[in-house]
Amino acid sequence: MKALKTFLKSIAIILMFFAIVIYLYNYLGYNDYKYEGKDAPIPTGLHPIVKKKTEHLINEAEAQDISIVITESFRTFERQEELYAQGRSEEGSIVTYAKGGESYHNYGLAIDFAIVKENEDLTWDINYDGNGNDKSDWHEVAEIAKDLGFEWGGDWSNFKDYPHLQMTFGLSIQELKLGFRPKVETEVKQ
Ligand SMILES: [Zn+2]
């Protein structure tokens, strides 16, 4: 009898433990953000939310008299490897520190932009002030992007990647490599 009581007590404690874990898991939003199923396939294009936010970015920049173009968006693992080789095993200067599968571009979660000058030339000059409001257009675009929920490569402390914007949805590269994906319907703040 005593043994049965102890046994039932143990079961109750174990069940309570799982209930708490499941509650915390949902409470922390892990479920919402991190699952579209593990071992999801590698995406083949830009994530729909990133795509929509990119359109907002282009329009909102235009409203500030800043014309931008998206020079890079989704990138295959193969193309990432080619870029990584540049300045290492291949000629040219180093353009990335990410190998294939290690960039948010490889999961359709990053874009790169450039500014279009009045004469239609592209510029990567972060001090360029085409709309003449005494503010760098590049920083103005970065501010709009951040309001839309992007992370800006210009804010990174080690390797500054000024044209780069990404949306991680709380997922690390390690998690993306493991097959975690943001939910398509996950909505970010408008
Ligand atoms: Zn980039």
UniProtKB/TrEMBL annotation:
<dbReference type="InterPro" id="IPR039561">
    <property type="entry name" value="Peptidase_M15C"/>
</dbReference>
<feature type="domain" description="Peptidase M15C">
    <location>
        <begin position="99"/>
        <end position="167"/>
    </location>
</feature>
<dbReference type="InterPro" id="IPR052179">
    <property type="entry name" value="DD-CPase-like"/>
</dbReference>
<dbReference type="InterPro" id="IPR009045">
    <property type="entry name" value="Zn_M74/Hedgehog-like"/>
</dbReference>
<dbReference type="Pfam" id="PF13539">
    <property type="entry name" value="Peptidase_M15_4"/>
</dbReference>
<keyword id="KW-1133">Transmembrane helix</keyword>
<keyword id="KW-0472">Membrane</keyword>
<keyword id="KW-0812">Transmembrane</keyword>
<feature type="transmembrane region" description="Helical">
    <location>
        <begin position="6"/>
        <end position="28"/>
    </location>
</feature>
<protein>
    <submittedName>
        <fullName>M15 family peptidase</fullName>
    </submittedName>
</protein>
<dbReference type="GO" id="GO:0008233">
    <property type="term" value="F:peptidase activity"/>
</dbReference>
